[in-house]
Amino acid sequence: MLTDTKLKALKPKDKLYKVSDRDGLYVVVLTSGTVSFRYYYRINDRRETLAIGRYGQITLSEARGKLFEAKRLIAEGMSPSIEKQKKKELGKTSHFGDWLGRWLKEVNYKDSTRNIVDGIIRRDVEPKFGKKALNEITADMLRVHCEKIKDRGASASAVKTRDIIGNVFTYAKARGVNCDNPADYVAPSTIATFTPRDRALSKREIGIFFGQSQHGTVSLSSLNRAATHTIQLAQKKGLPLSEFVLHDMRRTASTHLHEAGYHSDWIEKALAHEQRGVRRFTIRLSMQNSAASCCRIGRIWLMGGLGNIRINNGK
């Protein structure tokens, strides 16, 4: 059986040689003088050798502890050598930025949602966390960062930042990374809470909005800004038009088309809310013509039929 005294006394020879310890553990003394702990074993009718570590980098006691762990894996039908290689490969991609890129390639987002997520990643996620190791990112670090985003008036982005980081950690853990997910300790409600919107423009407000608009062609990316400008002009003239955001126009269309008696499925199709699964298949044929009609009415009415604004789908 080996001791520290015996290990320190080992000298190199012309050829490498082995010295046994106990329970299958032994050391190999290389011609360079390096003393390496190893374990020879059989699993699934094959022979394997586990390189445990160099003496000096690990102690004799630590080597015996690793031997005990290796035997536990073998008892569970797992190869210690293969498990060691897996950990080594995971260690090469332990940085958050690496896992963020892998997750983003596989996550299934619609184009509009992906554009929003990409923007938040570029602005709020990568600069702060991209070069950090996963185990360096703590719940306190995440909470403080989200508070800073919230303080600049971007509560929704703060919550989304928390969600993105949580999703990346969940993705990494599902692929064998052993780490705590900091998002598990930062509830969205501790960052910000939101009041559900129920704003829908009246027919009079729609007429005022398009009547006061001074914009000929408006890209979707700047529609909120153009709408704010138009609202301010109307309010200066004393016209009854309160503030709203772009998504309120979708709600407005839905409200008035329902009041006009159109079927809910047709309205959802017209407003680009996709039906999925069996329901989508069964209603597809029956709603084709009616949805197209509903779509034309809703879009002409809301997107220019009452004023001089035209929507440009380009960026």
3D architecture notes:
With 315 residues, the protein is α+β, with helices and mostly antiparallel strands. The chain has three domains: 4-84, Double Stranded RNA Binding Domain (2-Layer Sandwich), CATH 3.30.160; 96-191, Tyrosine recombinase, N-terminal domain (DNA polymerase, domain 1, Orthogonal Bundle); 203-312, no CATH class. 56% of the residues lie in helices and 10% in strands. It has helices at 4-9, 60-75, 80-92, 96-106, 111-129, 139-151, 155-174, 188-191, 203-212, 223-236, 246-259, 264-270, 277-305; strands at 17-20, 25-29, 35-43, 46-54, 217-219, 310-312. The strands form two sheets. Strands 1-2-3-4 form a four-stranded antiparallel sheet, covered by helices on one side. The protein has a two-stranded parallel sheet with strand order 5-6. β2 and β3 (35-43) form a beta hairpin. α4 (96-106) crosses α7, α9 (203-212) packs across α10 and α11 crosses α13. The N and C termini lie far apart (74 Å). Mean pLDDT is 79; it is low at 277-315.
* Structural class computed from helices and strand pairing: alpha+beta
Helix % is 55-70%
Please state how the strands of the largest beta sheet are arranged side by side.
1-2-3-4
Question: How far apart lie the N and C ends?
Answer: 74 Å
Q: How many structural units, i.e. domains?
A: 3
Quick structural gist:
The chain has 315 residues and is of the alpha+beta class. The chain contains 13 helices and six strands.
